[in-house]
UniProtKB/TrEMBL annotation:
Organism: Streptomyces capitiformicae
Residues that span the membrane, as ranges: 360-381
Protein name: non-specific serine/threonine protein kinase
Xref: Pfam families: PASTA, Pkinase
Ranges of residues in domain PASTA: 383-449, 450-517, 518-584, 585-649
SMART domains in UniProt: PASTA, S_TKc
Amino acid sequence: MSVVARTLTCVDTTLQDPLVGHVLDGRYRVEARIAVGGMATVYRAVDTRLDRVLALKVMHPTLAADGSFVERFIREAKSVARLSHPNVVGVFDQGTDGSYVYLAMEYVAGCTLRDVLRERGALQPRAALDILEPVLAALGAAHRAGFVHRDMKPENVLIGDDGRVKVADFGLVRAVDTVTSTTGTVLGTVSYLAPEQLEHGTTDTRVDVYACGVMLYEMLTGGKPHSGDSPAQVLYRALNDDVPPPSAAVPALPYELDELVASATARNPELRPYDAVALLAQARQARSALSDEQLDAVPPQAIAGGHDNAEDRTSVIPRSLSLPGTGAPGPEQLNRTSRLETPAPPRRTRARGSVAPRRGLLAIVAAVLLALGAGGGVWYITSGQFTRVPAVLNVSEAAAVKRIEGAGLDARTKREFSDTVKRGQVIRTDPGPRERIRDNDTVTLTISKGPEIVKVPDLEGYRLDLAKTRLKNDGLAPGLVTREFSEDVIRGQVIRTEPGVGTEASSGSAVALVVSRGAPVDVPEVSGSSVEDATDLLEREGLKVKIASEQVNSEFDKGLVAEQSPGAGEQVGEGDTVTLTISKGPEMIEVPDVVGDSVDEATQKLQDAGFEVEEDRGLLGLFGDEVKGQSVAGGEQAAKGSTITIEIG
C-alpha cells in the first residue's frame, strides 16, 4: 500500500521513566516508552515467559485509584479479547502490579495514520480507500459483535511496516445494547464526535460511521471538515454545518467520494449507514465506479489549518448550554516505531489536465487559425465560451439553482428518494461537478425527496432467517436480536419487532427482533442418576441432552451422572440443551495411619490428605486425646472426600 514516501522519525521519550527497565508483574520487561496519553502510557516490552515483543499499556497511577477508570480499562481488555479479527489490535493479558494497572497487547511495528497525514497531507484516493476499508472491516466485526468503539480517529489507526492496517485503543468501547445516553459528559475526540454525541450523549454504531467519514475527508483533503480557533468553535460548526464535500477543497476529486463522505457524515444519524459493514459496502461500490486514473490522482498539498493537536485528544466534554473547553488529553497513539517506508507514487510523464500541454495545444491551434484568417476562432477557444459546472452536492435546491444560474447555466430539477441526502438538497448533477460545458447549457439537479418511508411488517411467527429476509426485501435492515421465553410462540420464531408493526421508518433503518426461546422449563436434578434415566427425564421436559466428551471423578459411582449444566432449578427455554458429565467414580487415595497421634494431629493429617474427619469418643474417650483406632486402616485406599472416623481413648 503506497501511503508514505518519506521516513517518519519518532522521538525517544524513555528518559527518566521509572518503568523503563522494570519487570512488571514478574513477567513483562519494559524496554521503551512509545507514547503518553490522558489515561495511560504505552511501552514496548518483552514477555519473558513467552519471549515475544508486545505493547504494554499502563494506566497512570493517579487514575488507578479511580474505580470508574479502572473499570473502563478492564472493559477494554475484555471487549477486545472477544474480537478475533486481523484488523483489530489483539489483547493478550490484563493485570495489576502494585499501583500499576496494565494491558498486554499486540505490538504493531509501524506508525499511526496521524503520522502519515502529518507527513504527507492529502492522500491519493486509492490509498485513502486502502486504509478506510480494513478499518471498516474491523469496526464491522465489533459492531456485529455488539460493540461501539466511540473514539475513532487517525491516532487509533495503525499502519504496520508490512502494510497491515489495524484499529487500536478500544478504551471507550461500549456494548451496543447498553448504550443509550450519558447524563453529564461526552467522551471522545472533538473533531470526530457525531452531532448526537455532542447534543445528547447518544452513542451507537453510527457514531463510529460518522468518525470514519471525517477520517476519509481528512485523508482526501489533508484537513478536517470543521476548523476553529478553539474546540468550542469546532463543536458549534459540527452541530450546525454539514461536512462539506471533499471536492470543495480538492476540485479533482470525483463526486462518488463526495457522496461517500456525505453518507457517512450526515448530521441526522437516521440518514447514515447503520453500521460499519453497511458503510464498507458503500465504500467498495464507490471504488468500483472510479477509474484507475481517478484512484491514482496525485492530490495537492494539505489545506491550511488541517491539523491541531489539541483537537485530536480524547476529551471529557460536559454537555451543557455553554460549549465546552478542550478537556484532558485522551487515548494515546499506540505502537509508533522509528519509521515507516513505502514507495512513492509512480512518476507520470504528464499529469492529467496539466497547464503546460494545454497551453501548447492552444498556441498551435491559434497559429493555424490565424494563418487561415480565422482569428475569431482563437478567441472562441481561449475565452469564456465554456464554463465548469459548480459543485452543489448537499446544497439546498434554492442555493444550488442560484449558483448554477450565476455561472451562466440553466438549471432543471428532478426528484428522487435518498437515504443519505436530506430532503430538498442536491443528490447529484448531470453533468457532474466541475465538468466543462458550454455557456447557457442545462444542468439537471437531482433533488432529494428524503428517505423513502417504509412500514415495519408484521413478522410474528416468522423464523428468524425468514424474518431477516423479509425486512431486507421491504427495504429495512435486521437489527439487534434478543431472545425471551414465550408460552405462545414456537422456539426460534419472532415474537415481536421493535419498533412495532406498522411503524413508519426510513428505508434502511434497523429493526430489532425479539425471538422466542420457547416455553420456560425448570431443569430437573439428574446428578447421581444413570445416563438413561437422566436422558429420559430431561427429554420428557422438552430438553435436549448432550454428553460431555470428558469424564470426571465424583462422589457418584462410575457411569452415573456426575454434573449437569445448566444446574438443577435453573430456568431454560423448551428445546435448550443440558450437558451431562459422566462420573469416573470416586478418586481413591491412601489413608494415612493416625493411630497413636493426638486428636489434633490426626485430624490435620486426614484433612490434608483429602478426607472428612469424624470423632468417636465413647464413654472412655470423653477426656482422652489419643487416637486408638480409625475406621479405615492406615495404608488402605478410600474415596477422596469420604469420612474417616477416629476412635479416641
